[in-house]
Amino acid sequence: MTFKAWRNLVGICLLGLGCSMAASWPAHAAKLDPGVHAGTLQGALYRIDVPDHWNGDLVMLLHGYQPVGAPISTPMTAADSTDVFLKKGFAVAQSQYASQGWAVGDAMADNERLRQHFVRTYGQPSHTYIYGFSMGGLVVAASIERYPHAYTGAMITCGLTVSTPDFLAKGVITPLVAFDALIPGVIPDLAAPDSPPAISPEAIAHALEAHPKEAALLAKRLEEKPETLPTLALYYMALREIEKRAGGMPVDNRKEVYEGFGDDATFNRNVHRYSGSPQAMAYAKRNLSLTGHIAVPLVMQWNAFDQTIPSRFHGVYPEQVKAAGGGKWLTVLDPVGEGHCNFTDEQTSAAFDALVRKVVAD
Predict the structure, then answer these.
(1) By the 8 A CB rule, do 172 and 94 touch?
(2) Residues 228, 229, 232, 233: is their CA dihedral positive or negative?
(3) Can you list the domains of the chain with their CATH numbers?
(4) Is 0.70 surpassed by the pTM of this model?
């Protein structure tokens, strides 16, 4: 059997179309017993789920943003999508990450540490895929850029696949200073040492109700809906948490020229300006910045309307990949549904099948 024929047969098996490949899997596969294998690696909880009929392949799964202080169960709870892969015969390994919040640096290191632990303990899987959602999507993109030979393919759903400096500038600071310029007195001074670590979504919602014209303008410019703009409270919390990690203001908007918020000249005069800390800005760049250089198949999909990661972010990484010359590796599926990471198991399964087909075709 030629290598290409063998690879195509593997792909047919992975898609669940029926075949027997028991003799093709490495001998070490039998050493990994079905069930849950849990533990801790350098402060990060992890779990490895193995189905009864393991196909010899592995999915590394990266979860999304968790606010600092959110309850953590021990042993680690599996992500909702885990069963999708287990039913297809894949083992699934996932890390809790060593810290919460904007833990992208920890997440990439913890995921790679877990992957290497799997290989050392159980042997090299026949194929290793990586899948992440929401903030985990950013870590997936960074991982396949940094470790291209570790993965057969990658999948990102509802991903915030924007370099941290751009996310801070366009996804956090822009909405917050725009809200403050149009509806003053609700967003605290971001540079004040006594500013609270969080603000109330209800306070934002009440202010929007009292200023419907400004709410409509913000929603249009930010590609949101007036009723979903209270998610600005999440942006604010993320900024404060990243600021704490970085040791200062991680973004500088003193020279930013804003457009699309009504009278641009008046808006730019009124908007609050912040001076970024060079140290903090360097931290944001390290954790994490994307280049768009990929060398493995990547499937991406978003919800048609996502209040947390609006559509203005969706095309950023696909365009970056194409500009870097990697368009042949990229598949962007049509958006489905509404909400943040609101996919059915069937939709997640179909997206992964599309990835496997791409791997087989390549």
Answers:
(1) no
(2) negative
(3) 3-162+291-361 (3.40.50.1820), 164-285 (no CATH)
(4) yes
